[in-house]
Hints:
With 71 residues, the chain is mainly α. The chain has a domain at 24-71. The protein contains 3 helices and no strands. It has helices at 12-19, 26-36, 40-54. α2 runs antiparallel to α3.
Amino acid sequence: MAAEHIYNDVTRAFLSNIENGKPVSPEAAARYAKTLGYAEEQFIRLALQDQMRRAGLKYEGAVRHLVTVPP
């Protein structure tokens, strides 16, 4: 049986994983933020903050989009 999708890229299983404290990669966070119409920077920051918390590191950080200038 195919996964039941709420949006194009967000499954009920994924939402359940988040609700139950499973880690989310920064890549997945960016993808889901875009799918749900939220700022990618915010979701990425939360994913990285969670990784640092899980590692026992008492740091926080900021995320900003880098603009690349063509040569």
